[in-house]
Amino acid sequence: MSTLTLKGPYWATVRQHRRAAWAVPALIAAGLALVVALRMWAGPRGIPYPNRGYNVLRLFMEFGGTYLLLLPVLVGAFVAGPMTARELESGTWRLALTQSTTPRAWLGAKVLVAAVVAALGSAALVAVYRLGWDRVAGTYQLAWSDRGTYEATGPVLVAYCLLGVALGALVGQLVRRTLAAMAVTGLLTGLVLLGLGSLRWSVLSTQTATMPLSGNPARLVPHDALLTDVGFLTATGGRLPAHTCIERKHDAAACFADLHVTARYAEFHPASHYWPTQLMETSLVLALSAAALYAAFRLLRARRG
To answer: What does pTM read for this prediction?
Structure first.
């Protein structure tokens, strides 16, 4: 058992931030209990009319996805502020160096403890979220591709939390002011979330579906697909936007004839693109995390040896 006991800077880090460490399993347990209770209230699948429990569960999962989207920002802010910048600002990090601890071991303990807690905690929250989301998946704002739901249902959330740890370790050393480091790290993590989120559906090629102009537009794409573009095709193969004849809606047939419209088209991402996109984005975020962590240790070495 002695080999499993935390020692040196790891023990000190866990003890110093034990309240935050205990808050993680408490949050997971509370979330699990609430999701299980709401699922029981909502009843089994196949109920023809959603009841109040179903509506409450759906609302809870909608807001839960949004809150989990902020989790990497909170992780990064905590690592940058209370774990790193506060000790550098107050000078208490020097106390660790008097206990036969090197600067590299001091920062390494903080990064490792934070990374383990963030990875295990976020993975558990993803599992809890999926348990509730499975009952209401595909409803408004809860499709597999929606912002918040997409991050909260896959490994990409874990990767973003690890990115927050790495950015926190780097920014905490650069800024060395608790509140400022928290703000900068939160801003950077949020910008990465927004930036990659706006680009994620540009990696894989979309699929294109067409149908005759007389067909039912509702059957043009699968019901669970992410629609990216829709419009009309002309006799020459050209594309026209969906609003082409909106001003002549009372004479749409004549409008289509004048423009030689022959068919409808739609571009979309099928639900099968979910996991490839998750894995590619996760790999990219982990690479960014590794780069930020490398920069953090290089900075530590340059400043303190």
So the answer is: 0.92
